[in-house]
């Protein structure tokens, strides 16, 4: 099942993402059951990751490398991660999370600007209408 989520970014921006329950069904269900989620976000290379969110899910089809615009849940940090490009520990041409993540979907917005100026700001994940 695919679920569309809006990420509200201050001051007046938003991104659309699509969660895919076939990738990590328990993780996607836990996130959907807890929406909306408002949380502080941080920047690490071209990745955005959140402070801990109110769900605890173990590794589920976890991957050590991800693709451009993947959305994932990082079990050790209880964080949602948005991958806009390389991270500081990846080799050239790869996007490597700090440790394996449960990939849960993709950012599907057109004309995406990498929101690297968001460090320390609060964003909100909501089910799209």
Keywords:
129 residues; Cyclophilin; 8-stranded antiparallel barrel; 39% strand
Topology:
Layout (H helix, E strand, L loop, with lengths): L1 E8 L3 E8 L4 H9 L3 E8 L2 E4 L19 E5 L4 E5 L18 E6 L14 E6 L2
Antiparallel strand pairs: 1-2, 1-8, 2-7, 3-4, 3-8, 4-6, 5-6, 5-7
Give the mean pLDDT: 94
Order of helices and strands: EEHEEEEEE
Shape: globular
How are the strands of the largest sheet arranged?
1-2-7-5-6-4-3-8
CATH architecture: Beta Barrel
Written overview of the protein:
The protein has one helix spanning 25-33, and strands spanning 2-9, 13-20, 37-44, 47-50, 70-74, 79-83, 102-107, 122-127. By secondary structure, the chain is mainly beta. The protein has one domain (2-127): Beta Barrel (Cyclophilin), CATH 2.40.100. The chain has an eight-stranded antiparallel barrel. β5 and β6 (79-83) form a beta hairpin. The longest helix has 9 residues, at 25-33. The chain is globular, with a radius of gyration of 13 Å.
Summarize the structure.
The protein is mainly beta and 129 residues long. The protein has one domain (2-127): Cyclophilin.
């Amino acid at each position: 099942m695919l679920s569309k989520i809006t990420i509200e970014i201050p001051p007046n921006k938003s991104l659309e993402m699509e969660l895919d329950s076939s990738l990590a069904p328990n993780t996607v269900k836990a996130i959907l059951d807890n929406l909306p989620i408002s949380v502080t976000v941080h920047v690490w290379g071209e990745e955005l990751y959140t402070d801990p969110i109110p769900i605890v899910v173990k590794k589920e089809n976890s991957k050590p490398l991800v693709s451009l615009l993947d959305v994932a849940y990082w079990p050790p940090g209880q964080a949602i991660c948005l991958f806009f490009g390389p991270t500081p520990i990846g080799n050239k041409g790869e996007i490597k999370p700090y440790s394996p993540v449960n990939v849960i979907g993709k950012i599907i917005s057109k004309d995406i600007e990498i929101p690297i100026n968001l460090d320390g700001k609060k964003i909100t994940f909501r089910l799209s209408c």
